[in-house]
Automatic annotation (TrEMBL):
Protein name: Putative lymphocyte activation 3 protein-like
Record carries keyword Membrane: yes
Signal peptide coordinates: 1-27
Species of the source: Scophthalmus maximus
Superkingdom of source: Eukaryota
TM helices/strands, residue ranges: 425-448
Gene3D superfamilies per UniProt: Immunoglobulins
UniProt cross-references to SUPFAM superfamilies, sorted A to Z: Immunoglobulin (SSF48726)
Ig-like domain location: 27-130, 146-221, 343-406
Gene Ontology MF term list: MHC class II protein binding; protein tyrosine kinase binding
GO BP annotations, alphabetical order: interleukin-15-mediated signaling pathway; positive regulation of ERK1 and ERK2 cascade; T cell activation
The keyword Ribosomal protein belongs to this UniProt entry's keyword annotation: no
Length: 487
């Protein structure tokens, strides 16, 4: 041992002995919680009446010196707190004038947990702090949907009789199976569940003890079908349009024996499979990822509404997701008592998630640019007169609590039931056809009259044989008149 080490040891002994003689006892232990990997702050505050920089000593029970500063300003770190010139602990000198000598520990580890003491030369009692490290771990780290998963909250050193509350995505979570374990060194709270999409998110363990509270978090992701994220997700489509039924597995997770089915409700709440629509086509594009098993309905019909199921096998586990297809259409009608009026009604096969309907008039300028004008709210749109203002494209937008769900469009020109009292109720094409037909009829009548007059001038009869007889009789009469004496 060299001379400097002997001097430092002697100074430390005198410092502790002097402090002990001055205090004669130690103060109550303060509880501090810190999440593993974060920064922990161990409080040590005294009322300062001197502007001189005091000597400060931080030690950990059974581990020796953590950090020490002499009145001269020299600082020393324990061997386990300084590695390759990088110190994990320090005290902000800017706080010393306020009597704050709190110790900051960066990137705390489970082995950092324990009792620390702070002693300020000439300030009386030791300041005792219990540092407890909280860590949340998940096993397996990324579970397969349907298999067991454990979420564990470790507290080191373990307190006696703490309160524990679990939070999932900032909402309280009541585990179906919960276990509390204490072995003296650590305290564990374990949640065991079947991995499902509802467990995905941020898990937080909140620990309370002696009026103090600490928390730690970990993110849980479940491998399986990630789109749609939940079962019985609703997909909206308009009649005649194409729609994609999503079925996307976790990237890199390629399912075996993928199958699509259309479910038909039967008794005992067990759906039976029925025939898929004629326009149904499982996606098989070469550019599509092998874990994307989405399907396409090329042309949706009214009978295509209902529930569909996508399934596949991953690591011996059969994964499935149900999707409900909701079909939208527009019904047009004309009241018999008001021939110049009509209504458009937005119809959906399931309206359980719809909270609002909005009718929008879509128009186009000469450059084919769309413009939208909201007309009214409500499921039904009344058109009192079919005028040029009503021509064009109408869209019914339907929304829910989460925002827009979908829309369906309709062209007024195709509404034969809305022919009004005025010619403006017809389309331009219909008016042109009617006008040309009338002109052609007039021309035919004129030609017929000209032909009739021409026939009259020529004195041509309809029957040639009768014409010959008449001419013969007429010639004989003329001959007798010229020769009256001749018999």
């Amino acid at each position: 041992m060299n001379l400097n080490s002997v001097i430092m040891t002697l100074e430390y002994f005198i410092f502790v002995l002097t402090t002990f003689l001055m205090t004669g006892a130690q103060s109550e232990v303060t509880e501090v919680f810190a999440e593993a990997g974060s920064q922990a702050v161990l409080p040590c505050r005294y009322s300062s009446t001197s502007y001189d920089s005091p000597g400060i000593l931080w030690i950990k029970t059974n581990k020796g010196t953590v950090w020490r500063k002499q009145k001269s300003g020299l600082q020393f770190w324990g061997s386990s707190w300084s590695q390759k010139g990088i110190q994990r602990v320090h005290c902000p000198h800017s706080q010393f004038e306020r009597g704050d000598y709190s110790l900051q520990i960066n990137s705390v580890r489970e082995e950092d947990g324990g009792v620390y003491s702070c002693t300020v030369e000439g300030q009386g009692d030791e300041y005792m702090v219990m540092l407890r490290i909280i860590r949340v771990s998940i096993s397996p780290s990324v579970p397969i949907s349907g298999k067991d998963v454990s979420v564990t909250c470790d507290v080191t050193p373990g307190p006696q009789g703490p309160t524990v509350q679990w939070m999932l995505n900032d909402s309280p979570f009541l585990p179906q199976t919960g276990i509390l374990e204490t072995n003296g060194e650590t305290f564990d709270s374990i949640v065991r569940e079947k991995a499902t999409a509802r467990l995905t998110g941020n898990w937080t363990c909140v620990v309370g003890y002696k009026g103090k509270e600490g928390r730690a978090s970990a993110a849980l992701s479940v491998k399986g079908i990630i789109q749609p994220a939940t079962d019985d997700t609703k997909v909206y489509a308009a009649v005649g349009s194409a729609v994609t039924l999503p079925c996307v597995f976790t990237p890199g997770l390629i399912p075996a024996l993928p199958v699509w089915e259309k479910l038909q409700p039967v008794s005992h709440l067990k759906p039976a499979a029925s025939r898929l629509p004629a326009s149904f086509s499982p996606s098989s594009q070469s550019s599509q990822a092998p874990w994307d098993k989405s399907a396409i309905l090329k042309e949706v019909g009214l009978k295509d509404e209902g529930r569909y199921r996508c399934s596949g096998t991953v690591q011996g586990q059969r994964l499935a997701r149900n999707i409900q297809l909701i079909v939208a259409t527009i019904d047009n009608s004309v009241p018999s008592k008001k021939k110049g009026a009509g209504t458009l009604t937005c119809q959906l096969s399931d309206t359980s998630e719809v909270t609002e309907y909005e009718w929008v008039h879509v128009t186009y300028d000469p450059s084919a640019t769309q413009s939208f004008r909201s007309i009214q709210k409500g499921k039904t749109l009344s058109l009192n007169q079919v005028s040029e203002e009503n021509w064009g494209e109408w869209a019914c937008r339907f929304s829910g609590k989460e925002g827009n769900l979908g829309n369906i469009t309709y062209h007024v020109q195709m509404m034969s039931g809305l022919s009004g009292q005025k010619s403006s109720g017809f389309s331009y094409t219909t008016a042109a056809v009617v006008g040309l037909s009338f002109l052609l009829l007039v021309l035919l009548l004129i030609l017929a009259q000209l032909y009739k007059n021409h026939q009259r001038r020529k004195g041509i009869f309809q029957y040639p044989a009768l014409e010959t007889i008449v001419h013969t009789i007429s010639n004989e009469r003329e001959e007798r008149e010229r020769n009256p004496m001749k018999k």
